[in-house]
Write a structure and sequence with these properties.
Length: about 160
C-alpha cells in the first residue's frame, strides 16, 4: 500500500509541475526588445509631418479646382469635383493607414472652401449657384467623415496566405 501512495504522490507532483511549466514564461526565450510607441506617443517624424502638410496643401488645391469645375459644368462638374475629393481623402487614408491621412487633406480642403466662400469686396465669390455650393460643401464633408472613420482598411486575401475566397 505504501508503494501505491508513493506512486500517487509522484503522479500528483508531476502533474502540478507540468501545469506550472505550462503557465510559466519560457526561460530560454530570447530577450524582447521594447515595443516602439505608435500614434501620438511616438516621437514626431519630420518627414511624416511634411507629408501631412503636403496633403493639406493638395486638399486646398483640389478644393479650388473643384469649386471652379462644379460651377462651370453643374451636374457633371459637381460629380467630378466630389470624385476628386473622395479620391484624395481615401488615398491619404490608404497611403498612411491612419485617420490623420484622411483628415489632413480634409482640413486643407475645408479651409480653402471657407476662404473661397468669403468672397471679394465687390460681393462676388467663386461658387456659381447655391445648390452646387451646398452639395459641394456637404458632399465633401460627408466624404471626409466617411474616409476618416473607416475602422480598418480592406486587405486582400492573397497577401495573408489564405486560399480561396
Amino acid at each position: 500500500m505504501s508503494q501505491d501512495k508513493d506512486k500517487d504522490k509522484a503522479r500528483a507532483q508531476a502533474g502540478s509541475q507540468a501545469r506550472a511549466q505550462a503557465h510559466s514564461p519560457r526561460t530560454k526565450a530570447p530577450p524582447r526588445s521594447a515595443a516602439r510607441p505608435t500614434g501620438l506617443a511616438a516621437p514626431p517624424n519630420p518627414a511624416r509631418i511634411a507629408a501631412y502638410f503636403g496633403l493639406a496643401v493638395l486638399g486646398a488645391l483640389v478644393a479650388m479646382a473643384g469649386s471652379l469645375v462644379q460651377a462651370a459644368w453643374f451636374p457633371g462638374g459637381l460629380l467630378i469635383a466630389l470624385a476628386a475629393t473622395a479620391g484624395l481623402f481615401y488615398g491619404g487614408r490608404v497611403l498612411f493607414g491612419t485617420q490623420l491621412g484622411a483628415l489632413a487633406p480634409a482640413a486643407g480642403w475645408l479651409v480653402a472652401v471657407i476662404v473661397l466662400l468669403s468672397g471679394r469686396p465687390e460681393g462676388d465669390y467663386v461658387f456659381g449657384d447655391e445648390l452646387g455650393l451646398t452639395l459641394f460643401l456637404l458632399g465633401g464633408m460627408a466624404v471626409a467623415v466617411m474616409c476618416a472613420t473607416t475602422s480598418r482598411l480592406p486587405q486582400s486575401a492573397t497577401g495573408n496566405g489564405r486560399s480561396g475566397t
